[in-house]
Amino acid sequence: MLRAHVGGTEWGRASWVGRVYPRGTKSKDFLSFYAKQYSTVEGNTLYYGLQPPAVIERWASLVGDNFRFCPKVLESISHKQQLVNAGGDTALFMEGVRHFGSKLGPSFLQLSEAFGPDRAAVLQSYLRALPRDFQVGVELRHPGWFGPGVAADTFELFRELGVGTVITDVAGRRDVLHMRLTTPVAFIRFVTNGLHPADYRRADAWAERLADWTSKGLQELYFFVHSPGEQTSPEMMTYVIQRFNARLGVGLTVPNLANGGQAETLSLF
Q1: What is the DSSP code string of 26-73?
Q2: Residue-number span of the structural domain to which 106 is assigned
């Protein structure tokens, strides 16, 4: 059976109080309530700087056994150093996120839009230096990566090393919807347009596509929903979970969003 995780970019949205979190919820309790609704989160906070081990271990203690944190690789590595002479920071990042323990999912390396296939050798060298037991996916954003026959050797190296690809589904950049899988793990970032009808059609298409991929060997799915200001992400995550449950039979918990005060029924215990 496909192991599926659906979530968002963060848990610290005060605007979700009364919708995702009961009224009166304190910020220190946001993660506990988030983890009752969703099963994964992008670790965007760590992109800007590592947290102390005690903080990461506390986060891990607040979620269930099936929850997964997917940290974003440090900005200093991906954007400032552009993967060059980044071994020290990479070691620090890997050591830091290991404090998530069994709650650690794939990390993801988001390269800048300026990092094109002309720098493939730099990317390949960086990936070869990573430990094989460190699960990571790469988000390529430069349009040059996605032409027919481009960078075939780089994607072949991904397969050889067990490095995943990050697939981004956003209305304004259809080229990054590349559909290349180099491992049996799909890591998808789904950017909405404020619950436009096309958002629902795209989500429906993912349910069908993932059913096909599962029949061909897909084993695990990480699906992250983004929206402007994350204001409509909870509603889209709920829709995605319902569709995936119906089409893929993954048995995800359906979020209990506030609708006439339903979120009030949630409890930490």
Answers
A1: -GGGHHHHHHHH-SEEEETHHHH-PPPHHHHHHHHHTS-TT-EEEEBP
A2: 3-255
In the structure encoding, which two tokens stand for residue 123, read together? 């990317």
Q: How confident is the model at residue 223 (pLDDT cuts 50, 70, 90)?
A: very high
pLDDT digits (tens, 9 = 90+) for 17-66: 999 999 999 999 999 999 999 999 998 889 999 999 999 999 999 999 99
Is 268 a member of any domain?
A: no
- Give the C-alpha separation, 44 to 233, whole Å: 15
Edge-first strand order for the sheet with 220-226 is 68-71, 40-43, 3-8, 220-226, 185-191, 164-169, 136-139, 107-110
Please state the domain count of the chain.
1
Q: Is the pLDDT of residue 133 over 80?
A: yes
Query: Residue 165: beta bridge partners?
Result: 138
* CB atoms near residue 118 (< 10 Å): 9
Position 261 in a domain: no
Residue 266 lies in a domain: no
Residue 19 amino acid letter: R
Residue 158 sits in a domain whose CATH number is 3.20.20.410
Confirm whether 263 is domain-assigned: no
By DSSP bridging, strand 136-139 and strand 164-169 are parallel
Distance separating alpha carbons of residues 110 and 220, to the nearest angstrom: 20
Model-level pTM? Answer: 0.94
| DSSP helix/strand/coil, 254 | coil
Q: pLDDT tens digit string along 168-190?
A: 998 877 776 788 899 999 999 99
Of 39, 30, 63, the residue nearest 253 (C-alpha):
39
